[in-house]
Amino acid sequence: MRAMRAAGAAAAAATAVVLAVAAWRRARPVREVLFFPSRPCCIEALLAEAAEPGTPARPCPCPLPSGDTALSRLVRRLLSARRSLDLCLFSFSSPQLARAVQLLHRRGVRVRLVTDAQYMGLHGSQIGRLRHAGIQVRHDQHSGYMHHKFAIVDRRMLITGSLNWTTQAIQSNRENVLVVEDADYVKAFQDEFERIWEEYNPANYSFFPKGSK
């Protein structure tokens, strides 16, 4: 009897340790660095899980392999959004990342996107597709590029680096992306986003040079 009680106590202690470690891991702030290029991969399972959590993913007929890549990790971080996603991107032509953003929008996440006026009109840009889906988009109206490349998830996670959200950059370029949950860094980037968002408000656009008649 005494041995059974000791075994039970040991099992309970082991379970408590496992739960404590799991809780600690969940509570740890995100600190992740992603390096590109990323090999081509299928993200259908990630999108399906985000669209219908708990539903078994159907086999994808595409020839691309699934697996853990820099792209799949970036997509996972984006799909973790529950309330808001603020995007400030120079160039956005990746269909895979656009699908992830659209899915979040359909799921009720508030998505706002700031981009560069010249590059949003290039062939292959996903900006028109996202705008057509009902996502709020604002762009610059002056010389010089809107050259930022960052995203803020739920006002708590910052995703930033050299990566343009294009297939070329993802699959071919040497790029980096930093993913962090750090209140000070997030606030600095959130403040910058809000400043640009207001500056690019269409109500502030001027269509004629000052002083013209």
Overview of this protein structure:
It is a single chain. The protein has 213 residues and is of the alpha/beta class. Helices cover 40% and strands 18% of the residues. It contains seven helices and seven strands, in the order αβααβαβαβββαβα. The chain has helices at residues 2-27, 44-51, 70-79, 95-106, 127-132, 167-172, 183-199; strands at 31-36, 84-89, 110-115, 136-139, 149-153, 157-161, 175-180. A seven-stranded mixed β-sheet has the order 1-7-6-5-2-3-4, with helices on both faces. The N and C termini lie far apart (98 Å).
Strand coverage percent: 15-25%
The H/E string reads HEHHEHEHEEEHEH
Helix/strand-derived category reads alpha/beta
Q: Which regions have little confidence, pLDDT < 50, spanning 5+ residues? A: none
The strand order across the widest sheet is 1-7-6-5-2-3-4
What is the number of E strands? 7
Mean pLDDT: 89
Distance between the termini: 98 Å
Radius of gyration: 22 Å
Main sheet attributes: strand count, strand direction, barrel closure: 7 strands, mixed
Short recap of the structure:
The chain has 213 residues and is an alpha/beta fold. The protein has helices at 2-27, 44-51, 70-79, 95-106, 127-132, 167-172, 183-199; strands spanning 31-36, 84-89, 110-115, 136-139, 149-153, 157-161, 175-180. The relative contact order is 0.16.
